[in-house]
Structures are given as C-alpha cells and as structure tokens.
Amino acid sequence: MKFTISLALLNIRRRIATSALAIAVCAATVVLLAVYFGNISAGQRQLTNLTESIPVVARVSNLIGTQVTGLQIKHERMQEIKRLENISEFRCTVNLMGEYTADAAGRADAHDINMLGVNGIDAFPALSAGAISMEDGVGLDFLDTNAAMCIASKEFLLKTGLAQGDTVRLVLYYYDYSRGSYLLRFLQLGASELKIAGSYTEADMSDSIATPAIICPYAWAEYIHEAVGVDFYADSAVFKVKELLIAYIVSYVILQGRQREFAIMRAVGTSAGMCTAEAFFESAVLALCGGLVGTVAALFIGKADPLSVLLAAVAAVLCYICGIIAPALARKRISVSMALSGAE
Amino acid sequence: MINVNDVSYNYVSKYHTVEALKNVSCKFENGMLYSIIGPSGSGKTTLLSLLAGLDLPTSGEIFIDNVSMSSMDRDKYRREQAAVIYQSFNLFPLLTAKENIMFPMLLKGMNKAEAGRIATEYAEDVGLREVLLSKRPLLLSGGEQQRVAIARALAIGGDILLADEPTGNLDEENGKVIMSILKRLTHENDYLCIMITHNTEMAEQSDRVYAIKDGRVVS
Ligand SMILES: Nc1ncnc2c1ncn2[C@@H]1O[C@H](COP(=O)(O)OP(=O)(O)O)[C@@H](O)[C@H]1O
Ligand SMILES: [Mg+2]
After folding, report:
1. CB contact under 8 A, A261 and B55
2. Mind telling me how many Å the CA of A253 is from chain B's nearest CA?
C-alpha cells in the first residue's frame, strides 16, 4: 500500500504537464458546474456557450485501439447514446466481412474482403474526404443514408476488374456472438449488391490496422441485418459531449495511453488489483486538487452560493474518479503479452 | 524445473481463431540455457507468455517445480520466481535505471535503502556503470537498457529467466555481451534460462535448442 501511494505520487510528479492539465480541467468543471447549479437560467445560457467552444470528443472504440478485436456495441445501445441530449456529431462504424464472387463473365475468383460501414467519412479518420475520387455529381452524403452504394479501394478494383460506376455483387457474413466468444461462428447473411460511387487508395490510409476494401453506409449494413432478423453490433462510436462528461472523459483519456506501463507492472508481478489501486489513487489525488482549486475559484467568482459550489465539486470529483473505473476494468481484459511484445 | 504437458493455445478473435500452439510438450531444467528457434509467427512468444503465467493454456498444463500453473498465484510467481526480458526492453519510462531495478524489490515490501543498495550490486553484476543509474531509460543505449532489464530480472530473486529475443534490437557486440551474461547466470547461479532467438550462432551456444514450427515443437 505504501509503495502504491509513493508510486502514484511519483507518477504525478514526473508527468507534471499531464497532471496540471487534469487538475485544470477538473477545476474548470467545478466552476462550470457551480455556475450551472447556482444560477440555472442565466448560468445555463453561459454554460451552453462555453461548452460549445470546448471541443471535447468522446471515442468509444476498441480498447486496444485496433479495429479487429474486442468491442461490440449493441445497436440499441448506440441508439440510446445517439438520443442523449448532451451529445452531438455522432459517428459510428461497423466491420463486415464480404466475399466477392465472380460475375457472369467469370472475371475473378472469390476474395474475402474487409468492409467498413460508416455514417459519415469522418467516422474513419484514416481516410480523408479529399483522398477519394467520386463519380461526377455524386457526393459522400449517401454514407448517412441506407443507399446500396459504396466506395471501393483501387486495389480491390484492380484485383476484380471492376470499375467506378459498376455494381459489385457480394455475399455478406456476420459473427454469431450468441454463444460467447469461445464459440464464435461465422454465418452467412445473404447476397447483396452495391453500386461503386467512388474510389480511394488503400496505401493512402494512415495508421489503420485493417484497411477496408469497401466502405458502405452504416444504415445500409443495419438494413441488411434487419432484413434477415439478425442482431446488429457496431464497432465504434465517436461523438462530442458537453457538460458533466468532460471530467470523466479526461481521466479516461489520460489513463488510456498508459496500457503498456500497466502491462509492464503486470509483467513484474503486480496484481491487477494493485494496478487499479495505483491508477485510482493517482486520479483521486488529481481530482481532489482540481476540485479544491475549482471550489476556491467558484467561490471567488461569486456567481453561485456555497452549497451549489460544494455540490459541483463533489459531482466533478466523483465524475472524474469514475473515469478511472472504465480503463481499470478494461485493463483486465487486454492481453498483457500483446502490449509488451509490440515494438517501441 | 518447468514441465510443459500437451499444451495448446488458441487466440480467439472476431475474425478467426488462431491455433498458436498445438500439443506442445517439453521440459526445462535449472542450470541449463535453452534456445527456442523458429520462423516468425510460429508461436514462440505465445509459449513464453504461457511460461511467464501471463495467460493459461487453452488445454494442457504447465508445471513449475511440479506445481500446476493453473492452481498457483501467477502474479506471485512473476513477483518472486520468473522474470521476463523483452526485445523492446519494457522498462518504466518515468523511473530512473536504478528505480527500475528497485521496482520488484519495493513491490515485495523491501525498504528503500536496502533495495537501493542491492540494485547497485545487480547493476554492477551486469556491467552497468554507476553514472548511468540516475538516468531514465530513454537516455540510455539499447545495450544499456537491456542490462537494466536483466538487473531488474535479477531483482525478482527467482531462478527462472525468460527472454524474448533479448538481443534482437542490439548490435552484434552488445548482443554478445548480453548473451554471455545470460550464460554466466545460468551456469554459475543455477538459473533456468529460456531464450527465444533468431540468431543461429547464439542458439548454438545454448545447452539445448527447441525448434518450433506452426505451433508444434519439431526438434
Ligand atoms: N493477440 C493475438 N491475437 C491473435 N493472434 C495472435 C495474437 N498474438 C499472436 N497471434 C498469432 O499467433 C501465432 C503465433 O504468434 P507468436 O507467438 O507471436 O509467434 P512468434 O513469436 O513465433 O513470432 C501467429 O500466427 C500470430 O499471428
Ligand atoms: Mg515473437
């Protein structure tokens, strides 16, 4: 226990810039909340304007950061998140597997192809809109509809002999999660056709693990699943958030980048519980410092009564500490050996 | 002594299942330096992770001194008996070289002064100059970082050393030095040392070579 605490304090001290940021955000959250609780009518207008100008982006995605393992978000959950009031610019993705079979002329053999469903091209940051060449008069807006259209990689077109404007015929597959991950089955979803409205080069994509050969509308993927009556799972969601969630997300993000460090701790025999305790203590110290600074600042500004300030401080600190629980639970699930054998 | 008894391991992911190890059986004794060779993707790292208790086999059993891995406290096993050394060193970036070496001892509850004294001894043992001990890993050369990693492994105080391509990121000269340290520890201090390597010359210097191909031990 003593070692855990001294390690946490050492981490805070040696990562001083990050720690200062965490304290500042937590303090700012307290001030914002104090204003919010204290003076609902005037305060709320102010808060709305303030949070509009803070671009906080939440990313719910695979915990290892790749697109190939891990997270499945139930479709109903996605809809719930999307409906939340303090969320905007909602983007989501889903991975699909397709099999391309030769057309009547027999131009190509079967290929397993990697497909990505998105509801906007910015859901897939590895590919910028500028790098896509589209048919004349066609925009990328169709990605937010359930149109049976897609954009395909030049590499895929080359391999299959297809061209922009053609229709690609695919057999789609889905994963049956109903029996738990150890008995994952791969089942057919049926044949479909997509019109190729544009193309891009796979080599242009930055830091993407699984480069998709075809990008299609998320809602189309949803439609195909619903038509067969199969449960639908998304792979990632990105959205902007306002208000309360800010502190939660900052603590989450700050610990996210440290999986390797925790993996090293595990490799030398630190128990999962002790790693969590260390992370918890580290964040709690930062949250309490931030809470204290924020409380003093809020009282000094004098926009709110002391009770509201106290309420705000407690809410912000709790919220911040909650941000530790998610990655701590996640750490139990990531593969320690994978984190460690990766190159520097 | 480690006994690997009919061990298989599968990685199950969303797209497919990879059978990384298939019915592997082998035996490792103290005082012996073992090399594991095999093409990339053949399952070497997977085997080492299982020997380190970072995961359990999908089927089969691993016994450490006749105690089954599945029934023991595997964190404690890594805290007190088995140390792992990696190609990419895996030192704590925020801790100095000396603090890195002290970490396992502090984790076990030793007091700081004594841990510091012993860390200096281990550092000397692997040929780390005293001036380097106050530096953070990123300021050290690859060879120096790997020596810190070995000293930290010694600080565990156990008798098992598991090394995943420990010389993979080093030049030839530094590679030889690291190799000779591992050899000395094995033969003079009765460690059980298992080393994954791509370098046939280094494999030849070990007491026994296991070759793995497609998840099976082939010789
Ligand atoms: N975390 C993982 N998830 C899925 N497959 C993996 C993972 N780690 C390794 N593999 C696969 O397991 C096999 C053995 O890998 P590994 O043990 O790393 O081989 P080596 O160390 O001999 O190069 C490879 O086919 C590799 O692709
Ligand atoms: Mg390997």
Report:
1. no
2. 19
pLDDT at residue A335, rounded to an integer: 67
Instruction: Report the distance separating Cα B39 and Cα B37, nearest Å.
Output: 7
* pLDDT over threshold 60, residue B77: yes
B78 touches chain A (CB under 8 A): yes
Q: Range with the lowest mean pLDDT among A68-72, A254-258, B21-25? A: A68-72
* B80 touching A (Cβ < 8 Å): yes
Instruction: Tell me which of A5, A270, A282, A341 to substitute to probe the interface with B (most B C-beta atoms closer than 10 Å).
Output: A341
CB B201 within 8 A of CB B195: no
- From ligand 2's centre to the CA of B18, what distance in Å? 15
Report the residue of chain A nearest B154, measured CA to CA. Answer: A268
User: Probe ligand 1: pick from A62, A184, A338, A341, max atoms within 8 Å of CB?
Assistant: A338
pLDDT of residue A303: 65
Instruction: ipTM value, please give it.
Output: 0.91
Residues of A in contact with B103 (CB under 8 A): 268
Note whether A74 and A221 are within 8 A (CB). Answer: no
- A331 at B interface, C-beta within 8 A: no
- Three-state secondary-structure class, residue B121: helix
What digits encode the pLDDT tens for the residues A286-337?
888 888 888 888 888 776 677 778 887 888 888 777 766 666 666 555 567 7
Residue with the smallest CA separation from ligand 1 atom 25 is B41
Distance CA A284, CA A81 (A): 27
Q: What whole-number distance in Å separates Cα of residue B127 and Cα of residue B143?
A: 11
Strands B192-196 and B160-164: parallel
Q: B93 to chain A nearest CA, in Å?
A: 8
Radius of gyration of the CA atoms of chain B, in A: 17
Nearest CA-CA partner of B169 in B78, B87, B84, B49: B87
Residue A326: HSE in the Cβ half-sphere, 13 Å Cα cutoff:
19
Helix axes A40-52 and A16-38, enclosed angle (nearest 10) = 150
Residues of chain A with C-beta less than 8 angstroms from the C-beta of B45 = 337, 341
> Within its chain, how far is the Cα of B69 from the centroid?
17
Long-range contacts, stretch A175-181, CB < 8 angstroms, 24+ apart: A175/A233, A175/B14, A177/A72, A177/A231, A177/A233, A178/A231, A181/B12
DSSP state of B137: G
Residues 56-75 of A with CB under 8 A from B: 68-70, 72
What does the alpha-carbon distance between residue A87 and residue A82 come to, in Å, rounded to a whole number?
7
As given in the structure block, the two tokens for residue A99 are: 């099999």
Q: pLDDT (tens digit, 9 = 90+) per residue, A163-183?
A: 888 898 888 887 666 555 555
Using alpha carbons, select from A28, A142, A260 the residue that is nearest to residue B88: A260
Decide the pairing of beta strands A236-241 and A87-100. Answer: antiparallel
A99–chain B Cβ distance below 8 A for any pair = no
Instruction: Calculate how far, in angstroms, residue B71's C-alpha sits from the geometric centre of ligand 1.
Output: 25
Residue A217's DSSP bridge partners are A118
